[in-house]
Each structure stands twice: as structure tokens, then as C-alpha cells.
């Protein structure tokens, strides 16, 4: 497999609404494997297909509380509960973090890499990652959700070591 290039702003692919996957065939399975490899090579928690130049509705997430990578094809959030403030970063907006409001809990549905319908109930980092990556599929970046420009901060090299609560999703 291959580590793919991660697109960064202002690449126009990041602003397009991704297309539904009709068939999870060999090319989509290869994309998923490459996305997982790319995610593990990058300092991130999640990756959406548009971030690697593929305008398809596919996301992969790797969080410590899950043993395996989470793969969702054609994902959607079907339920949210509560609100919390998150310090969020993004592999496509390197060197910055921002304060955004996300749900405390989410329920998402989609298909796994084998084409089986799945439903995920999540809270904490996994809920945040699901919302963040599904936003990517709709051409939305976390910087679009900032209440004001002063909620976006440039990371200093020392922040990248000490900032435990900030993750690039």
C-alpha cells in the first residue's frame, strides 16, 4: 500500500461535497487501506477521502479506545446529544488549533469496508472525530465553525509537545 499526500487549504477538493460510494469494490478497498496507512503515518486521529484527493464519502478514524481502525463508507450523523467545547486541529490545516463546539455524544451510521451496515454510538474524542471527518465529506472544515477569528491559534513548537488535549483530526 501507499502513504498518500494530505491536501491542505486552500486546495479546492477540500471544499467539494464528496460523492456517495455506490460499490465498495477493489478501488475503494485500496483507497481505504491507503488512507489507514496515511493516517498512521501522520500525527492524526482521522482522515476523510477528500483530504487525500478522492472526492468519495469515506472516512477512517484511529482512536486509542478502539482496537482497530474505524472505517465508514457513506457515513452520516443520525443523532447528537449535548454540546462541548473542543480544541481541534486538522491535518489539512497544519500548525493551527481552534476552539469549536461539538456534540457530547453522536450516533453515526454507514457501511464498513466489507459493505455491512453499521451504527456507532460515540462520545469524547471518537464523537469529535466522527463529526469532524463527516464535515470534511460535506466540504466543511473546522475553521468554518469558529465563533470568531480569535478562536484560532497558531501552534508554537513547544505547544506541539505539551498540548495533550489538542489532536489533529
Characterization of this structure:
The strands form 2 sheets. Strands 1-2-3-6-7 form a 5-stranded antiparallel beta sheet. The model is unreliable at 160-166 (pLDDT under 50). It has a single domain, classed as Peptide deformylase (Peptide Deformylase, Alpha-Beta Complex). The chain has 3 helices and 9 strands. The chain is α+β, with helices and mostly antiparallel strands.
Structure characteristics:
169 residues, alpha+beta, Peptide Deformylase, 5-stranded antiparallel sheet, 3 helices, 21% helix, globular
Reconstruct the topology from this structure.
Blueprint: H1 26-41, E1 46-48, E2 58-61, E3 70-81, E4 84-90, E5 93-102, E6 105-111, E7 117-123, H2 124-137, E8 152-154, H3 157-162, E9 167-168
Parallel strand pairs: 4-9
Antiparallel strand pairs: 1-2, 2-3, 3-6, 4-5, 5-8, 6-7
Shape: globular
Write out the CATH superfamily name: Peptide deformylase
Number of domains: 1
CATH topology: Peptide Deformylase
Could you say what the CATH architecture is?
Answer: Alpha-Beta Complex
In the predicted model, the low-confidence regions spanning at least 5 consecutive residues are 160-166
- Radius of gyration, Cα only, in angstroms? 15 Å
Enumerate how many helices there are, as a single number.
Answer: 3
Average pLDDT, rounded to a whole number, is 92
| Total beta-strand segments | 9
The CATH first-level class comes to: Alpha Beta
Major β-sheet, in short? 5 strands, antiparallel
Helix content: 10-25%
Distance between the first and last residues' Cα: 22 Å
Give the DSSP E fraction (strand runs of 2 or more residues): 25-35%
How do the SSEs run, as a string of H and E?
A: HEEEEEEEHEHE
Structural class of the secondary structure composition? Answer: alpha+beta
Going across the biggest sheet, name each strand in turn.
1-2-3-6-7
Amino acid at each position: 500500500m501507499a502513504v498518500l499526500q494530505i491536501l491542505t487549504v486552500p486546495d479546492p477538493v477540500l471544499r467539494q461535497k464528496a460523492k456517495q460510494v455506490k460499490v465498495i469494490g477493489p478501488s475503494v478497498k485500496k483507497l481505504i487501506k491507503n488512507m489507514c496507512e496515511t493516517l498512521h503515518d501522520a500525527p492524526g486521529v482521522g482522515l476523510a477521502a477528500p483530504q487525500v484527493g478522492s472526492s468519495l464519502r469515506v472516512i477512517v478514524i484511529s482512536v486509542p479506545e478502539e482496537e482497530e481502525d474505524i472505517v465508514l463508507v457513506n457515513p452520516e450523523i443520525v443523532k447528537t446529544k449535548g454540546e462541548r467545547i473542543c480544541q481541534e486541529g486538522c491535518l489539512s490545516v497544519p500548525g493551527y488549533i481552534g476552539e469549536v463546539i461539538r456534540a457530547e455524544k453522536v450516533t453515526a451510521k454507514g457501511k464498513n469496508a466489507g459493505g455491512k451496515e453499521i451504527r456507532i454510538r460515540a462520545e469524547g474524542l471518537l464523537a469529535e472525530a466522527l463529526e469532524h471527518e463527516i464535515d470534511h465529506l460535506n466540504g466543511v472544515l473546522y475553521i468554518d465553525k469558529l465563533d470568531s477569528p480569535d478562536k484560532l491559534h497558531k501552534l508554537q513548537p513547544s505547544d506541539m509537545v505539551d498540548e495533550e488535549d489538542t489532536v489533529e483530526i
